[in-house]
Design brief:
Elements: E1 2-5, E2 11-20, E3 26-28, H1 34-53, E4 61-68, H2 83-99, E5 107-109, E6 112-113, E7 122-123, H3 128-138, E8 144-147, H4 157-166, E9 169-172
Parallel strand pairs: 1-5, 3-4, 5-8, 8-9
Antiparallel strand pairs: 1-2, 2-4, 6-7
């Protein structure tokens, strides 16, 4: 399961389904903000292009995304910092589709994907401390939180210690 992290400390599950298609299209269910749709497109397309370039994926996929709250309701949030979470969720769904087995992911992520290309860079985001604390509340021991390496200086000793004590890995990307 992949969770997207938001500036208010909340998180939503990123649920992705893929279907073979002639071109890499991304659809977000519900009524996403323009920024969230852009985040999903950049994340999904960057992951797809990078995996195809490395010959990990044999097909092109249409991607259907949904952000779910803890109650299962579709979430409507703002911002572009969910791009990394969309990229990870797409990767898990596409690899499961091609290989026939599920990836056991327990991650939360924040990071803006700079472009939808195969060499996309994960850019700095706002409120990373609040997002990381929110991730520590939802992840089980053994989970991981991915965040932009450019935000490394924003990660406090308190957050690092809380992650260590919960056995959650903090992974700058």
């Amino acid at each position: 399961m992949v969770h997207a992290l938001f500036a208010d400390g909340s998180a939503c599950e990123v649920r992705v389904e893929v279907d073979a298609g002639p071109e890499p299209k991304v659809f977000v269910l519900g009524q996403p903000s323009r920024e969230l749709l852009l985040s999903a497109e950049r994340g999904g397309n960057a992951a797809q292009l990078a995996l195809r370039r490395r010959k990990v994926l044999a097909r092109t996929y249409a991607t259907f995304c949904e952000l779910l709250t803890g109650t299962g309701a579709t979430s409507t949030v703002l911002g572009e910092s969910a791009g990394l979470a969309f990229a990870l969720a797409f990767t898990a769904a596409a690899l499961e589709r091609e290989r026939g087995k599920s990836l056991a992911l327990a991650v939360a992520a924040t990071g803006m994907v700079a472009s939808g290309g195969a060499d996309a860079v994960i850019q700095r985001v706002d409120s990373v401390g609040t997002k990381l604390r929110g991730a520590l509340e939802i992840l089980s021991p053994g989970g991981a939180v991915l965040y932009p390496a450019a935000n490394g200086g924003d990660v406090t000793d308190e957050v690092r210690e809380a992650a260590r004590s919960k056995s959650v890995r903090l992974v700058p990307v």
